[in-house]
Specification:
This is Auxin efflux carrier family protein isoform 1. InterPro entries: Mem_transp_PIN-like (IPR004776), PILS1/3/4/5/7 (IPR045033). Its main location: endoplasmic reticulum. The chain has a single domain, classed as Na+/H+ antiporter like fold (Up-down Bundle). The protein is 80% helix and 1% strand. The protein has 16 helices and two strands. Strands 1-2 form a two-stranded antiparallel sheet. β1 and β2 form a beta hairpin. α13 packs parallel to α16.
């Protein structure tokens, strides 16, 4: 296929995402106000606690079997590498741009977590629906596309709400502790200034005692902080969010044959449970896309986030990570870790490195009450640029694979 034809195939799914996001953007505007701050928060909670878990559970339970999971085993590793490389690049970006402490968690989240759920569920089946797609018969392609996209969503949910959520919470706690330490130090200095200075044989006793106490408190605080950090890492109730737990439950249902026969299929005794979860899950995609549009509209208000940080995040997500993704998939092919004939699977693996930041990062900043305006601005610009770069990368990926 020619490059121009591949470009058209890649453009159609991106246009669908733009149109659906545009609806959310429009109804959240100041003129319409159907998706204002309060409705957005309530809808976000519904997606977080109900719709997204239903989607992750039903999708993984229906499409993931023991055989398919063994065939697609590299996808969890591929996604993990994408998150790790994104985190490393985010750390370098923070050091280079000297990002303020209250924005570091947002930078980490935007660089490490890609939108491997909503976008893949929309884009990959849409690519297959094009008659001139490079992946074969549209009906067969669409069947595999939903399986791959669902697995990407489920695994992404686990990484998102364990790995990324843990890192963001760690940075948020670090920022709060630094602010508290600064306030405590300022208060201590104020108290020291009003106390009389008493010297015995020329030795400032008060200052010496004060410095020694501060050193002991500082060492004790570091020990306590480390113990707290370790305890938080093993606290599974706080680490795993509803979507991640639901995805794990879906995996168990899909892989365990006796449980699968009870819930999945037209003859399953408890098929009504799966059907209900499926209906709820289907509504998650449009709701998440509307929320995405609503969050992006808030980026028009501006914030104090520097252009350098925004450009850096765009460079990481839209340029560096896709290049790294090509290297990862090529290396996996060379080492025989993935089958060479499954081009659609390769395309999904590559696309996981090229998507813009996950909208769930905005959900996390809302829950932590941290830099919501800054997150909206970053999301707005990364998604505007991604409308072009995602089309180009998708075209390039298909051209490489074809």
């Amino acid at each position: 296929m020619g490059f121009a034809n591949l470009f058209v195939v890649a453009l159609m799914p991106v246009l669908k995402v733009i149109l659906m996001t545009g609806v959310g953007f429009f109804i959240a505007s100041d003129r319409i106000k159907l998706l204002g701050s309060e409705p957005n928060r309530h809808l976000n909670n519904i997606v977080f606690y109900v719709l997204s878990p239903a989607l992750a559970a039903s999708s993984s339970a229906e499409t993931v079997t023991f055989q398919s999971f063994m065939t697609l085993w590299f996808m969890p590793l591929n996604l993990l590498l994408a998150y790790i490389f994104g985190s490393i690049l985010a750390w370098l970006l923070i050091k280079i741009t000297k990002t303020p402490g209250h924005l570091q968690a947002i930078v980490i989240g935007c660089c490490s977590a890609g939108n491997v759920g909503t976008l893949t569920l929309i884009m990959i089946p849409a690519v297959c629906e094009e008659s001139n797609n490079p992946f074969g018969d549209p009906s067969v392609c669409s069947l595999h596309a939903r399986s791959y996209a669902s697995l990407s969503l489920a695994i992404g949910a686990i990484y998102m709400w364990s790995y990324v959520y843990g890192i963001i919470r760690l940075y948020v706690n670090k920022t709060i502790e630094n602010d508290s330490t600064s306030e405590t130090a300022a208060e201590s200095c104020t108290e020291l200034d009003v106390l009389p200075s008493i010297d015995v044989d020329g030795i400032p006793l008060l200052t010496t005692s004060f410095n020694g106490t501060i050193a002991k408190l500082s060492a004790w605080k570091k020990i306590m902080r480390r113990m707290k950090s370790i305890s938080e890492k093993v606290d599974l109730k706080k680490v795993f969010a509803p979507t991640a737990i639901a995805a794990i439950v879906g995996f168990i249902i899909g892989i365990a044959s006796p449980i699968r026969k009870l819930l999945i299929g037209n003859e399953a005794p408890l098929r009504v449970v799966d059907s209900s979860a499926y209906i709820l899950g289907e509504t998650a995609i449009p709701c998440m896309t509307l929320i995405m549009g609503g969050n992006l509209s808030r980026g028009l208000n501006g914030s104090d986030v520097s252009r350098t940080v925004i450009i850096g995040i765009i460079g990481v997500r839209n340029i560096l990570l896709p290049l790294i993704g090509i290297g990862v998939v090529k290396a996996a092919l060379h080492l025989g870790l993935i089958a060479s004939e499954n081009k659609l699977y390769h395309f999904v693996l590559l696309l996981q490195f090229a998507v813009p930041p996950a909208i769930s990062v905005g959900t996390m900043t809302q829950k932590f009450q941290l830099g919501q305006c800054e997150t909206s601005v970053i999301m707005l610009w990364t998604y505007v640029i991604a409308a072009f770069t995602l089309t180009i990368w998708s075209t390039l990926f298909m051209w490489i694979l074809a």
